[in-house]
Every structure is written in structure tokens, then in C-alpha cells.
Design goal:
Number of strands: 7
Order of helices and strands: EHEHEHHEHEHEEH
Number of helices: 7
Structural class: alpha/beta
Bound molecules: 5-O-phosphono-beta-D-ribofuranosylamine
Strand content: 15-25%
Radius of gyration: 16 Å
Amino acid sequence: MTKIAIFASGAGSNAQKIIDHFRETASIKVSLILCNKPGAGVLQIAENEGIPSMIIDKEKFFRDDAYTDELKQAGIDFIILAGFLWKIPVALISAFPGKIVNIHPALLPQYGGKGMYGQFVHQAVIDHQEKESGITIHYVDDHYDHGDIIFQAKCPVLASDTADTLASRIHQLEHQHYPAVIEQLLQSKIT
Ligand code: GRF
């Protein structure tokens, strides 16, 4: 059994899709949800799904052991970031080498880095009059949006797009691909 922890800061629509995807998979289970924002939608999802959740304390995350003990005790094998806005500390990366992945709502290496999240990403893409945007699923290292790329998918940027309309097209692409890419990745590591 491979146990997944999802880290999220917001609504958690990707977390929901990942939970739905693995509901019937015997060998892979979403076992824990960690969130840095009390009241975030993803915590309600955890409650509805009966998945244990934890609110992350900033001091413990960045200056202490980055919840490594709790994750190891829960038997977590793999970490998925799904809209998690804090940088991952080196302590956590070292404890889970090659086992933390993130999704970014643009085509890295462009439109990534510090401050490039949510609507800021989509507005920058529109401001630069890009014809295409997309999603990037990548391993996490100690720089924002920087680790090796696992998967990308593209979608058009329309002349009429606002950051909101582009965000919703990108969200659809994320929901379509993120769970399946995680499954492929985990199956290739399990077998
Ligand atoms: C997604 O667009 C993801 O790429 C970004 O944050 C958003 C999270 O959305 N990093 P949700 O909370 O999964 O709905």
C-alpha cells in the first residue's frame, strides 16, 4: 500500500479529484491532508472524505522538522502538492527524496518562481499575449517551481480571456491530468 499525503492551501479541487481517483485503488491511498490555512476548503473536503487532516504551524514547518516525524509516523510514502503556497523546506525534501511533486498552472520554466501563483500567473500570461498556456507537473526541489518536469499539457489562451477564464480552463486541464500522472508515477515506482 502506497500512502499519499496531500499538501494544499486553498479550495482543494485538485485534492478532491485525486481522492476520487484513488478511492477504488487498493494499492494507493490518500491518507493525510496538510493545510497551512485554517478554514480552507480542502479541510472540509478532508472531513467529508473521512481523511485525517493537520493544520501546519509555520514555526514547526520552517524551523523545526517540517512535520517529517508526523509524516513518517503516518507511514506516508509520497507527497503531492496541490495548490500549496509555502516553499517546501530542505528538511522535508531530504526526508522524501524524489517523492514530492507539485502542479503549476503554467508552462514552466516560464511564469514560475516566487510570487507566481494563482491569478498572478494567468494575468502575466495574458499580459505577455501568449497564445498558449498549460500545466506543469514537476518534482519539488528547494527552489520555487524548479524541479525536473514530469508532464506538461497545453491549452489555448484566447484574445478574450481574463485571468478568471484562463484559470478555469487550466483547472480543467489539471483535473484531467494530475490524478492520472500521479498514478502512472506511483505504479512505475511500485513495480
Ligand atoms: C491550482 O491551479 C494549482 O495549479 C495551483 O493552485 C491551484 C489550486 O487549486 N498551484 P485547487 O485548490 O486545487 O482548486
